[in-house]
Amino acid sequence: MVSAKQNYILRFFSPPNTTNRYVGISFSLSEETVIWVANRDTPLKDSSGAATLSKDGNLVVLDGTNRTVWSTNLTTTSPVINSIVQILDTGNLVLREEDSGDTLWESFSHPTDAMVQGMRISQNVNTGKQVLLTAWKNETDPGMGSFTGGIDAMSGTVQLFSWNDGRPHWRSGPWNGQIFLGIKDVFYAYLDAIAQVNSDGAGNIFFSPPPIDGIVIWNSSGSVIRKVWNKMEKRWDVVAYPKNECDVYGKCGVFGSCNALESPICRCLRGFEPVNEEEWGRGNWTSGCRRRNQLRCGDDGFERVQYMKVPDFAKPSSSSVQDECAALCRGNCSCIAYAYDSYIGCMFWSDTLIDTQEFDGVGVDLYVRLSASEFDSHKERKLYIIIGVAVGFVCISVVMFIAWWFIVKRKGSKAQDSSILEAGQMFTMDSTAIVLKDETKEVNIGDLPKFTFKMLANATNQFHEDNLLGRGGFGPVYMLLDWNMRYNIIEGISRGILYLHRDSRLRIIHRDLKPSNVLLDQDWNPKISDFGIARIFRDNEDQCNTARVMGTYGYMAPEYGMEGRFSEKSDVYSFGVLILEIIIGKKNTHYFNDEWSLSLIGCAWKMWSEGNGLSFVEESIASNETEEEMVRCIQIGLLCVQEHPKDRPSIEMVLSMLNHDIVELAAPKQPVLSENGSTDQNVYTSYELTHSVLDGR
């Protein structure tokens, strides 16, 4: 049986290296990818079986002797006669009552090891009952294995888990309404931002995967496999969790912290020491760590540990201010740690901290309660270090001064050239003449190194054009590029912005993204430059205000140019203008359409909204073969230049759109500057001059 759009197939199949036969549902473009199995624990041993509807309305699998090896097992008060079975385009196999159309049974409510779009797993927080995925025993046997997957919402936060015979094997960290805080990748790509966690009035919490062409599988080794179908290359793009040893639950034991980039990967949190030093030295960290000094409730302090996957068993509290978290934890003697997330609020821990991991540059700050004596000893160590560094600095300074004095004394005995080249002397090469002016007058340039004209001439082979890097001022510094190069530049700039906003240890808002601040290396890789007016955001900052608007007109977001408000989304706006400029090959501030009285953004909106996006593309690169990708980039650019910051995607989502991780794009609204409102050329000239606001910095 094939679904209407031929996405999924219900069929008999045999796994690799076995002749056992099963009834299952697979992905039509990749039939080896099985998402559901009916008779997973009762295989058919030959080819004489059948799948059919029984007289009582059940879907059954029969062997060669007509013995039922699997059934939907409908439990109804009266026998069901008229039933129909259908496989939907979502991959859901449904059994319906023919007359009423009521659903009697569906495979989505009886999952095996895989989740697809539209499917849900759940837990009831009142009863603890779960709908779980169960992995295959191995690659050749789809029978119920030892690993299960599902959500755990009993502690107050929702987490994805993989269990091995009931013991935690991997967890995602808490869901904050946008992402799972324990998966490092989502801080970069934001791929899980459109996943869904919902609840109903009966205490059920549901998790659904993102609405993309993908599958999530709990495999026989306990890994959570995320597979996204790459339509361009007709293959699966695969990501697996755990990704490294530190992702394995409790790798470093209680009060231990894991860092996959260090060796050894485990260490005790500050204020703690290994329970078993001998085991710890052998690389067996399961026994964990213990406190060096016991807590005294009134005198304790908190140690900040940055960029963490927060421990398991977090207890959330809906506080909207981070300072309240510290006060609440300090006032509760059983609270041993706290953290804050802007979407969740406060999270508290008591008793123990387990499955803690250090990320690199992303994550949540964890505040661990320590005895006051830990901070006293830390101050003493810092004092010794400061004294040692100061003494060393003084000694080195004395040695350097003595060496400098001897060098100066030796140089003083040598005669200096009063003139390097005489006035009017000329170098001629390749018909290029350079007149050297008199340089007998010495200029005081302080502590900067001095280079004579002769040095410069020799270093540049008499200023030969082969050594010319480019021309400034009024000279051109760019080339006309083909579409592939332009697309790579667009993607490269987005990765650079992602680094500034997310990957960098400091969160940086550039505030002046424009073509002249993007440099290209010899391989045409873009590099973002000129951070003269960039601002660093603190961890708890989402936006800032300024009374001095600095930047370049034509690239400023409306809220920044009009009100002085800037954020990550104002950089996204500038990037959107850049995308459109790269596509059309013209600058926003120098473009005006006389016929329609529209700016560059306005023309992009008009042509895209009328289904004529290819007309916006620079004529020299416009091609029907790449039209879909070009028009998609125009749509992404228009999403970036939306009037309100909340309507613009984050740079993570932009990169996911460019990489086709997000397949379906939202429809942009008409940009605020899409029309000038007049055909008067004077309106245009107000935007003709592009300049940066100059200020000392």
Automatic annotation (TrEMBL):
GO molecular function: ATP binding; protein serine/threonine kinase activity
UniProt signal peptide: none
Keywords: ATP-binding, Cell membrane, Disulfide bond, Glycoprotein, Kinase, Membrane, Nucleotide-binding, Serine/threonine-protein kinase, Signal, Transferase, Transmembrane, Transmembrane helix
Reaction catalysed by this enzyme: L-threonyl-[protein] + ATP = O-phospho-L-threonyl-[protein] + ADP + H(+); L-seryl-[protein] + ATP = O-phospho-L-seryl-[protein] + ADP + H(+)
SMART domains in UniProt: B_lectin, PAN_AP, S_TKc
Enzyme Commission numbers on file: 2.7.11.1
Domain of life: Eukaryota
PROSITE patterns membership: BULB_LECTIN (PS50927), PAN (PS50948), PROTEIN_KINASE_DOM (PS50011), PROTEIN_KINASE_ST (PS00108)
Main location as per UniProt: membrane
Domain spans labelled Bulb-type lectin: 1-108
Subcellular location: Cell membrane
Protein's UniProt keywords contain Transit peptide: no
Every Protein kinase domain range: 338-663
Transmembrane segments: 383-407
Residues in Apple domain copies: 297-371
Membrane topology, as annotated: Single-pass type I membrane protein
Family stated for the protein in its record: Belongs to the protein kinase superfamily. Ser/Thr protein kinase family.
Entry protein name: Receptor-like serine/threonine-protein kinase
Annotated source species: Salvia splendens (Scarlet sage)
